[in-house]
Amino acid sequence: MEEFIMKRDLKKIISQMTLEEKAGMCSGLDFWHLKHVDRLGIPEVMVSDGPHGLRKQDDKSDHLGMNDSIKAVCFPPAALSACSFDRKLMERMGKTIGKEAQANDVSVVLGPAVNIKRSPLCGRNFEYYSEDPYLAGEIAAAFVNGVQSQHVGTSIKHFAANNQEYHRMSNSSEADERTLREIYFPAFETAVKKAQPYTFMCSYNQINGTFASENKWLLTDVLRGDWGFKGYVMSDWGAVNDRVKGLKAGLELEMPSSNGANDALIVQAVKNGSLKEEILDQAVERILRIIFEYADNRTPQEFTMEKDHEEARHIAEESMVLLKNDGQILPLKNAEKVAFIGGFAKKPRFQGGGSSHINCFKITNALDSVPSDAQVIYAEGFPADKDLYDDTLAAEALKAAGKADKVVIFAGLPDSFESEGYDRSHMRLPDCQNRLIAEILKVQPNAVIVLHNGSPVEMPWLNDVKGLLEAYLGGQAGGAAVANILYGKVNPSGKLAETMPLKLSDNPSYLNFGSGEKVEYREGVFVGYRYYDTKEMDVAYPFGYGLSYTTFAYSNLNISNGNPTEKDTISVSVDVTNTGDMTGKEVVQLYVKDCTNSAIRPEKELKGFEKVALDPGETKTVTMELDKRSFAWYNTDLHDWFAASGEYKILIGASSRDIRLESKIQLNSSQEIPLHVHMNTTLGELFRNPKTAETAKKLTASYLSILNGGEEPVSDAASEAISEEMTLAMTDSMPLRALMSFGEFSREELLDIVEKLNKLI
Q1: 485-503, pLDDT tens digit by residue?
Q2: Which of 130, 228, 473, 578 is at a distance of 20 to 30 A from 302, taking alpha carbons?
Q3: Which domains does the chain have, with CATH numbers?
Q4: pLDDT digits over 148-176, tens only?
Q5: Choosing from 30, 86, 132, 236, which is the catalytic residue?
Q6: Contact 263, 24 (CB under 8 A)
Q7: Greatest C-alpha distance within the chain
Q8: What is the pTM of this model?
Q9: What is the pLDDT of residue 722?
Q10: What does 112-141 look like in DSSP terms, one character per residue?
Q11: 658 is catalytic
């Protein structure tokens, strides 16, 4: 955006605007358009939903934005595309959507959605990338860079801690700052620092009692002050609570229009002196900068939906995750008699419901996409859109399965099970599907399940099937992608961007999700695999897991600097070899384990990944970089990221549970957590600080003497009662004030000691 600033004098334009015009620029013209001022050359621009394709209303759009949108291409939603673990692929997807937006005169695409998958129940999980903030941030930044390369803006959303649909417009997400900074903020932060989205969309909810739309700490202190965001903040549709308070906090644009009501409040606040006009001017300048960035680089272009359809297929193929392949039941052979069972084979569920729902120009299914000489028969078995067991349909399916060599069952969640606006109440598939799957397995053990779902499901039949392909929601070309993977035309390479738990109650948010006006994030930083792996809990499939039709070996782990400081960037390289007989791609994952005991932390955290393509027998070296943030946790005393001195393990794996190589580094950090000594400071804290350790030893001398019976000989009974281990433990946790009782210090003496200790720090 820097070039543009040279071309136009925004401040001059603003100086020529009336107060009413300036206030008006801070809200929409209607549901999708921003206001224009013709006499000053400020054009009317349009925004559109679009995390995975354009949902653009035509010129006849209603004021609620409920009418059909134009025909467009539905790319794989985030739940699937994140499983690609492929930055370049996501940037390419963004670039394609950016070109479509330019062709359709859309200035800002409302996406990506990067909220963390706190619970499998969130009705909008299909729109979100991952349970892991590092992965979500990297994928989001790539997508944003792709879209904005076409001079079309993005609006990264929903900022912040919007992790459920229940009462989403009013509930308060209650989370401590460390949890927010480590889990729920980083995806947004990475996108700002690596891609600088043109706009941010604040969420509906409150954060610790303050609406996101009027949260100055969130929208100004963190977003602009800490991260350096330069664009404008818009509200989610209808998220504004107090417009003037929101403007002061950093909410520039209200969407959609409030029919002039909130504009009038802004005018009134400026006139009565409760709102400085400079704040309004700044908001207008930020909005105009983005409007003109698009308008001054307007490049209408042609695009071919057929070509973009094929791009959508390719993304789906790169992202679908092969979870089980016992006895190499896959890939299928053209000569095999295969029964396709389930309504999803013919009518796939490929996107979620709600604001991102695309009006597709074309949809491909798996049944019509198999090789021309494949021996496939079809039986519906169960419908794709409801939970209904039909005896006739079931009988036809069982007959087809019994006659076939193999059966592929297309299972999944109907639209009604998950959507924007409400959350799931359970993790189960429709009962009719589980029942028929169990019956089919009795007549045909050679069974493969293909799942169509936006979020994990419980799988009671998991141990009895031989193959399992997680197709998620595959976009409009997802059916073709499924067929190509099943028949080996494409080698699957996706990895799970979330953990698949065995059951809902295993999820760390289980007791604190959904109900109530306050949602307590009691699990803290232990979200997803951070929880499951730390607890060593059995899961259906771990984070980062995914199979291939070939195999890979890891070797030669090398770390450029084994003794870095917190200011250094280190390189980690590893060799990956395709040890099978088919070309494939592997996602190399780098996790860091903190061994310093400076804070309670997860067992491991993802800090790097790279996807590499390899021919049979080929070896490539994969290199990833680590910096201070790779080792740090957020310390609320420092108000900064803290990387403690000490040992860290560098783990290289094929999933969070499949660590192939590991090494150690010794970090030498100059950072210290500030110690403020007071009467409740423990002796242990003083011992562990090198500046106070010597004084602490002197302080405890008399206390230890008393505890050990002074100068009198210690009886056998006393020595049994007071062990050395007990003495050490009690000393460690002894607050200074207790030395009045146990160490024969007066209060005045202790206060003097506290003062001297604080001078040492």
Answers
A1: 999 999 999 999 999 999 9
A2: 473
A3: 14-60+67-295 (3.20.20.300), 311-534 (3.40.50.1700), 552-667 (2.60.40.10), 683-760 (no CATH)
A4: 999 999 999 999 999 998 888 789 999 99
A5: 236
A6: yes
A7: 98
A8: 0.94
A9: 47
A10: -B------TT-TTGGG---S-HHHHHHHHH
A11: no
